[in-house]
Amino acid sequence: MHRQLKTANSQNVATTSVIRLVPHHSRTVRLTEQDRTEMLAFLRVRPVHTLVMASFINDNGVESSLNRGVFFGYRGQNGQLEGVALIGHTTLVEARTDDALAGLAACAADPNTPIHLIMASGQDAERFWSYMGKTGSARLTCTEALFEVGFPFAVPSHNQPLSIATMEWLIPVAEAQAEVAFTECGVDPLVKDREGFLRRVARRIEQGRVFIVTEGETLIFKADIIAETAEAIYLEGVYVAAEYRGQGLGSEYLASLALQLLDRVENVSLLSNVNFTSSHKAFAKAGFRQTDTCTTLFL
To answer: Which domains does the chain have, with CATH numbers?
Structure first.
């Protein structure tokens, strides 16, 4: 009797899981340029956590191959957005309800969608993965700490010489970014997709979003603006050349960059693997403080 009850309960759980995977599927919609204002208003509620999606919309539009994915939304009973996700190579998720998370996950479950990573705040990425109905684990799961800085600035003013990278620095910048990427996820983008990766780095340089410190032909430091809105800037790819590490230069350059960027936004943030404790010390010296965590699944 106990075994039969246990089996029945297991079946009920499985059935519930399937039902939860696509709750009110008709409420999940592909978003278009007509939804831009509503999307940005939804994302602005948590401007730091949703910075990358908002920046993509501002930079590329809602419907663009440059986003390397498609925007979907989930609408509640009142028709208002409860979740927005960019589903594609880099899948970004902001869901305010469990139904929204499950509904958006159903869109991502299409086997023809080439997803490289899933990122969301807290544990939402792992829940999103489970709602996709996938078996097994992601190739790599990273918990990342969110660091932020704003005024009042917590460290003495630094005046280190940073410049905006030009196209002559494309290869050194790309090689540095590839090293950072390989350290984070075990994939070298210069090997996996050299042409596409160089094209994306070149575009960021053309946008004036790569800041560098050089000495002769040597790239000493770099950091990229991966996303920017009126409220905040998100940095990525903070790099110090191996022979210059351990001298405190990284924190000085990062502090100088943060001060420069805080002239145009209220908040500068970045993410870092929770295991990279030596980098976290440098971020703290540069005035950043940890405020949250998020999970990234590499597939």
So the answer is: 2-136 (3.40.630), 148-292 (3.40.630.30)
